[in-house]
Every structure is written in C-alpha cells, then in structure tokens.
Hints:
The chain is built from three helices and 15 strands. By secondary structure, it is an alpha+beta fold. The chain folds into two domains: 1-134, no CATH class; 154-306, no CATH class. Helix 1 (5-20) packs parallel to helix 3 and helix 2 runs antiparallel to helix 3 (54-72). The longest helix is centred in the N-terminal third of the chain and has 20 residues, at 31-50. The N and C termini lie far apart (41 Å).
Amino acid sequence: MHKRFIPLMILMLCCTLSKSWGQHSFSFNNGPIMSRYQDSLINLSEAVFSAESNADRFAKNAAFIKTLVNSLKTHTSFSYPFDSLKKITIIKSPDNSFRIFSWAVPVDDGTYRFFGSVQIATKDGKLKLFPLIDDTENIKDLNTVTSNKNWYGARYYEIVPVILSGRQPYYVLMGWKGNNAKTSKKVIDVLSFEKELPVFGKAVFEGFKGSGAMNRIVFEYNKLNSMTLTMDKGTNMIVFDHLAPFSPDMVGNFEYYASDLSFDAYKIVNGKLKLVENVELKNDPNVMDDFYADPKDKNIKPVKKL
C-alpha cells in the first residue's frame, strides 16, 4: 500500500519547490519564525515514527516535507541549524557551500524509504534546493552514477571534502542505508556538482576486491550487528570494519556477515580513494553505529563491539 504514497510525496515536494524559485522572502529577524518552524517539524517527525500504518506514516511524512520546504523559503534559512530536530540528519559541507538533509521512514515490511534534499548557499539568501528522490528499487547496478532525481537513498552522517588544485572539489558521503528485516547497509557515496547540478557517484574508489575503479561502495551485514564507518583523524583515512561471513559456507549470504574485528580503510591519494587493508588503529575509531536496528521493534538493539 505504501508505494502509492511515494509518487504523491514526490509530486508535492517538486511542486512546492517550483513555487519557491524567484519568490521574495522576508529578510528581517527570522530567528523566532525559524524556531516556530522547527517546533512544528519536531512534532511532525515524532508523528511519522509513532504512526502505526504505512498510509498514516507516509501521509505525516508528506506534511513534514511540506513544512520543511516552507521553512527553508525563509530568507537566509541556510544559516539556521535545526539542531533540535533529531529525527533527521543535517550535514553541512566544510566549505559552507551546501548542506544535506536526509532521513529514513520505516515501512511495515521491514524496509525503508529515504528522503532528503540538498540546500545550496546563495549570496542573496534565497532558496536553492534540490529534492532527493529515492530510486533504490530501480537501481540494479550499484555502480551507477545518479542524479538527485534517481538517488540511491541513505541517511548521511558524515562528509569529507576532496580538494585538488585547480579542480572542482567533490565530497565523500558516509551514510546508513538500512535494508530489510535481516540485513543493514552502509554506503560511501560521492557528491559532485556538474553545471551546478548534484551528481552522485564517481569513479574514485580503487582496489576494492580487486575490481576496477568504483563509483560508490556499499556494505551489507547482519541487522543485529553494528558497523564502524567514519573518517578517523588519527590515521586521516576513512576507516571501516572488515566484514566477513560467520563461516565459509555462508559467503555471499549477508544475513550472516559481521565484523571480524579488523579494519580496512580508504586513503585519499591524488584525488582517488585507495584501499588500505588491515589498518592498525592506536585507539578505537569514532564509532558511527546504526541509527536503528529496527525503528518499530524496541526490543532489538545493535550489538556493540567491545
């Protein structure tokens, strides 16, 4: 039933965005206005996750999207942090040129639908926003380069810029992907801008499982486990758990994959991400555990590594 609500929300978001282009917003003290918007968004997001059916959940999420877009129409909204809004993740690029809103909505069958937007900083404070349309179900090749209109959805929690002299920078994104009732996923994706439009995926990952350069990396593992994936300042590398099956006869069955307590990493070298295996860490990395084992099941919690 939930699938019929997805096109409706996409249409609502796109129509709302199209109306915002060229509009003049008020430019006086907008702190109280944004605070009221944030309060409304908090209430709506809580309602999304307390809803007991797909229909009610996605209807409330549609109301959340509409309110979020309206709040971002407020002049200079880019500077408002929304730091009390805990149900979604907001990450800003280190160069302050854009920020990404992203969140996941659980579905009754144990899967997730992802939502988000990229907000661009503008000199005049007007809204420039690209909705992120989750097209995961139709992306058969995980190595596909995509746009904001056919996004490989995720809830991003960390961003790392890659800057080369004389070239347009790109940004490495780390996110929680969720998956289904048995496995979870995490993703390392790449965001770049071509002709001022967002593009996801870039052939910069080298050395993964002996393959050629990859556009993105996706990890899948047992849902009751957690996985480290983060930028480690001690090594200056993107560090992640090495995932392995519980036994050799389970190879390829990701329901039985978990960390083997070793770490691999990607090191940025000349604008590429080179795989480094068996990384020695002086201290535990900054563990970015799954946001949820299952949002609807309060008795299931991720297994933490000691």
